[in-house]
Design brief:
The protein is mainly alpha-helical. It has one domain (about 1-200). It is built from 6 helices and 4 strands, in the order αααββαααββ. A hairpin with a 6-residue loop joins strand 1 and strand 2. The radius of gyration is 24 Å and the shape is elongated. The termini are close together.
């Protein structure tokens, strides 16, 4: 069971990594395009190299939402906003199952093993409850955006797409968190460590 959830979480994080890399590329190309567009419109180029500047500004490349001109990506903020939300939720399951969240153990390192087990169980149960609530609210938000038919301002793509994409990661994170919470409860009941925090399961 642990291998299954770990593998699923890993693939989800890999997908989130690809999306995040794509967003970085869009932001970089958008900034470069914006700066080049501004440069070619300045007095120097318009006075001394107007033909070249106008030609470069007029070049159009085929794009998903129409021709792409030299300049910033149309709707780059909308793409990044939707993509970042998905990437964050895509990384959550792996961070949860590997115990990779930032922790401060200054006040817990001296506690006995039993107390640390109880503390880990309480934390994982709290995570499970919070992530389940987030998943439910995202589900309601997705349905709301779908029913209203809202679209983004520039690209005009349905807003519910972004909500639905994030919902996949949120549901995965909720399932992983519930699994871990049950695991910690079982550890408390048996007094046996099944999965070390930040180390994965014993095999």
């Amino acid at each position: 069971m642990h291998r299954f959830f770990l593998g699923l979480s890993t693939w989800m994080a890999i997908l989130g990594g690809f999306v995040l890399s794509g967003l970085v590329a869009i932001v970089v190309l958008s900034i470069i395009g914006r700066e080049l567009n501004a440069t070619l419109h300045n007095d120097f180029f318009q006075t001394n190299m107007k033909g070249l500047a106008d030609w470069l500004l007029g070049v159009q490349l085929p794009g998903i939402w129409g021709p792409i001109k030299l300049g910033p990506f149309n709707g780059d903020y909308e793409i990044v906003e939707a993509g970042i939300a998905f990437a964050i939720f895509a990384f959550l399951p792996l961070a949860q199952i590997t115990g990779s969240h930032a922790t401060v153990d200054v006040f817990t390192s001296w506690l006995p093993d039993r107390s640390n087990r109880i503390l880990n169980a309480v934390i994982d149960i709290a995570f499970a409850i919070v992530l389940a609530i987030i998943a439910v609210q995202l589900w309601k938000g997705t349905l709301n955006k779908f029913d209203r038919g809202q679209t983004t301002f520039l690209l005009q793509f349905p807003i519910w797409w972004a909500y639905a994409a994030s919902l996949v990661g949120a549901v995965m994170a909720a399932f992983v968190s519930v699994y871990l919470a049950l695991l910690r409860i079982a550890e408390l009941a048996t007094g046996r460590t099944i999965a070390h925090a930040a180390e994965g399961a014993e095999h």
